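Lab notebook page, bench 4
Experiment: in silico fold of construct C2
Operator: M.H.
Input chain length: 104 residues
Purpose: comparison with the prior construct
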Amino acid sequence: MKEYGDIDSKFRYVIIASLRAKQLLAGAKPRLKSKSKNLIRIAQEEVKQGLVDYEIVKVAREEMEEISDSNVEMFIGKEITPEAGEKPAKKVAKKKKPAKSKKS
C-alpha cells in the first residue's frame, strides 16, 4: 500500500488522517514543513510519512459477547458537540410527501 504509507488499509488511513486533521484544525503544530497551507493535506502527508502514531486496540471476545448479548443501542465513536459559542442544531422535521391520487 504505497500510496497510504505503512497503513494496511485505506479506511484506516482516512480515519487516522481525519483525526490528525482535527488536531491541526484545533491548533496543533504540524510535524512537517509543507508548501500547502491546507491542514487536511498536511495531515494526509504526515500519515503517509509515518509521523502519526496510532494503536489498533483489539476487543476481547468476552467483551464482544457481552455487547451482543445486551440489547442496548450504542454509538461507537466520538459524539459531535457544538463548538464554543455555537447553539446546538435544531432537529428539522421531515415534510411528508402528499399522497398520490390514483387516476382512472
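Observations: The longest helix spans residues 10-25. The two ends are 61 Å apart (CA to CA).
Next step: discuss at group meeting.
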